Amino acid sequence: MIKIELSRAVKEIAKRKPKLVVVQIPEGLKTRTNEIIEKIEASGSECIVLMDPCFGACDLASDKAEKLGADLLVHFGHSKMYEGKNTLFFPLFYSIDSGKMVAQIGRLEEELDKRNLKNICLASTIQFRDHLKFIRESLGKKFKAHIGKGSSRIAEEGQVLGCNYSSFRNVNAECDAVVFIGDGLFHPLGFTFLTEKPIFHFNPLGGTIREFEDEREMFLRKRHGAIASVQNAKSFAILVSTKSGQMFKERAFELRKLIESKGKKAIILAMDYIMPEYLLGVEADAYVNTACPRIVIDDYSSFKKPILNPTELEIVLGVKKWEEFKLDELD
Ligand code: SF4
After folding, report:
1. 302 CA to middle of ligand 1, Å?
2. Is the confidence at residue 47, as pLDDT, over 90?
3. Residue 20 forms beta bridges with which residues?
4. What homologous superfamily is domain 2-92 in, according to CATH?
């Protein structure tokens, strides 16, 4: 079950006595929009909830809150990525029965024991933060769990984002395996480009623990095909997002210089959401995405032209070799 800290949020809001609060919520919380408004307004402030989709703290709605004349922005769903003016963050967490967790940790120990793995790096998304700590405390004495501190983009120890694995890098040398706690395949996939050590995907929601390996080959085949399809491209549209935590304009200019140095053409286009339909009519043989790297991975087939992340472009242009393929990270 997903936990929202609404009561704590209401108390924190009331302490600040704002006249107008603007609230940003992820898609999964939209069914609780009315309740959020009622509870905040009962504490004495006016409240407006933003309905634009929001996939991360990289998409903080500070500009929208300002336009609406809010005194306070409340962001539900994700942890702080960068300082926003008058902003409160309330990430969502999964709550899982501790008895079930203990049983699952027992199974994890068996898996690690079979392979004689003693030093493990624990990592998770923010929604599983509490389980990360619980697992560290519950693991038997023969195991040592390492939880790394990440870059400024990362709020909590051990947290990883689809675009940032710095917390892992800081403990990688001390570990002989990675245990990623979370749902979804994207994050464990990212680890496969950072280490050759065994990676275990521990999903407490489904109660599954398995070594993550097969998906990497399938994923690489798809990206290899995408890169091959761009080999003869003569013109590129480089895409920049205007979302504060995804805007890498300088990177776009560097990539344009690189493309032009190879005798090809490049233009730079900016938009809030990088949406395939916004690009209809633009003349370019391929797109290069400088925003969230997941756009390319998750939405590739929705685009009418091939879309690459920066490392993939560098492979196309011969600056990097295919063996150097990795998922791009943001900082
Ligand atoms: S992976 Fe994408 S959506 Fe998630 S934090 Fe990074 S840029 Fe934002």
Report:
1. 19
2. yes
3. 46
4. Diphthamide synthesis DPH1/DPH2 domain 1 (3.40.50.11840)
